[in-house]
Amino acid sequence: MNIQYLITELEVGGAEKALFQLVLGVRDRGHRVQVACLDRAGPVASWLRDAGVEVLDLDIRRSPRKGWRRLRRWIDEGQAEILHTYLAHANLLGRWGAFQPGGPRVICAVRVAERERREHLLLDALSRRLVHRYVAVSEAVGHFHAQRIGIPRSRMVAIANGVDSAQYEATPMPETSRPRILFVGRFHAQKRPLDLLRALAQLVRWEIPFEARLVGEGPLREQLLDRRVRWGLEDVLEIQSFQSEIGKEYREAHLLCLPSLWEGMPNVVLEAMSSARPVVATAVGGTPEVVVDGETGILVPPGDPSSLARALAIVLTDRELQRSMGQAGRRRVVEGFRPEWVVDRHLALYDEVLKDGSRGRCQH
Predict the structure, then answer these.
(1) What is the second-level CATH architecture of the domain 165-336?
(2) What's the CA gap between 213 and 33, in Å, rounded?
(3) 69-78 residue pLDDT tens
(4) How many other C-beta atoms are found inside a 10 Å radius of the C-beta of residue 147?
(5) Parallel, antiparallel, or unpaired for β 32-37 and 2-7?
(6) 288 touches 304 (CB < 8 A)
(7) Which one of 51, 60, 162, 225 is CB 3.0 to 4.6 Å from 342, fit for a cystine?
(8) Distance between CA atoms of residues 288 and 265, nearest Å
(9) Contact 336, 125 (CB under 8 A)
């Protein structure tokens, strides 16, 4: 097969890493792959190029009209059978770019239950007939999106993320008197890092020994630094930028905490579990499809720092629980979230779409 992949940008993020993994897996099965991004051909573009995959940067933000023409030409000249798009802007522009005689069939990846930018959902609903299939990252995301844009569930396929467990060492818990809580992600309202700081302040009041590290970037960074001082967390909390060696962060931690308001299927949860670390997270989106409450971690309601603090306290104060949850999480990822299965399911979907005589349009 000849498959084109279009994504909004190629900075380091969950969708970008998932596309990188899928593109190489499909390419290594003998298929032709073409990749383009609308804007910001960041580090993941370099990863792809280093792996021998060409990446076209359409630069559509700086030059919208020229970028649009380049997109149409790339699709036309690529002569692909499938156009698989990732992230909201690429999902919308890609389907219109492919709407031409002989154009490819369109598959749109849905990575999150979008609760913030409702205009994206409206535009998606208005142009949904140009999409042959949607691929959701979790059952929860697929159900949410199908309802919001008004398509039958049969047009939505759920394919979870995969993680290469060989890349993450299942090392023993570090021997220390202060177990470490790790947060990895954007410093953004969706991820609710301030809820985590409120929970940490509660742990300090309870006199539970711990230390915490927040790794990321985002608009809440300055606010986090301010609250770190105002809430008396200077001695227990470190805030730092993304590191190239994220595996080291998991090895040095005793648990991962993700207090998001909504999620798709967070890669950091899969990575932490692959590293044999328990997860304390909110029961949102696809997270409960990965974290087994009470077995591989603890799930709490979103927007509830008190419940988050109690769950953290349970794991922090029980070293045997940390070990057993970590080992159970590692087994779950190895047995159920293999990257080769992600490739298998996508290739099966591509075959199904190509055999479908309705060409590139949803009939509902």
Answers:
(1) 3-Layer(aba) Sandwich (3.40)
(2) 38
(3) 999 999 999 9
(4) 11
(5) parallel
(6) no
(7) 162
(8) 9
(9) no
Token pair in block for residue 64:
């919208």
Q: What is the mean pLDDT of the chain?
A: 94
2-162+338-355: CATH homologous superfamily? Answer: Glycogen Phosphorylase B; (3.40.50.2000)
The string of pLDDT tens digits covering residues 229-253 is 999 999 999 999 987 788 999 999 9
Q: Look up residue 267 and give its two tokens.
A: 């890669």
Provide CATH 3.40.50.2000 ranges for the chain. Answer: 2-162+338-355, 165-336
Nearest to 41 by CA among 71, 7, 88: 7
Long-range Cβ pairs for the range 265-268 (8 Å, 24+): 265/14, 265/137, 265/138, 265/141, 265/160, 265/161, 265/289, 265/290, 266/14, 266/185, 266/290, 267/14, 267/17, 267/18, 267/161, 267/163, 268/14, 268/184, 268/185
Identity at 18, one-letter amino acid code: A
Half-sphere exposure of 22 (CA within 13 A, CB side): 29
Pick left, alpha or beta for residue 102 (phi over 0 → left; psi -120 to 50 → alpha; otherwise beta): left
- How many C-beta neighbours within 10 Å does residue 320 have? 7
Q: Which token pair is 171? A: 């090392």
The 10 Å Cβ neighbour count of residue 51 is 12
> What's the chain's Rg over C-alpha atoms?
21
| Phi, psi (degrees; rounded to nearest 5) at 285 | 55, -135
Number of neighbouring beta carbons within 10 Å of residue 140:
22
Q: Are 269 and 191 in contact (CB under 8 A)?
A: no
Q: Give the residue ranges of DSSP H helices in 3-42.
A: 14-28
Alpha-carbon distance of 58 to 255, in angstroms, equals 40
3-state secondary structure 110-172: ECCCCCCCHHHHHHHHHCHHHCCEEEECCHHHHHHHHHHHCCCHHHEEECCCCCCHHHCCCCC
Question: The pTM is what?
Answer: 0.89
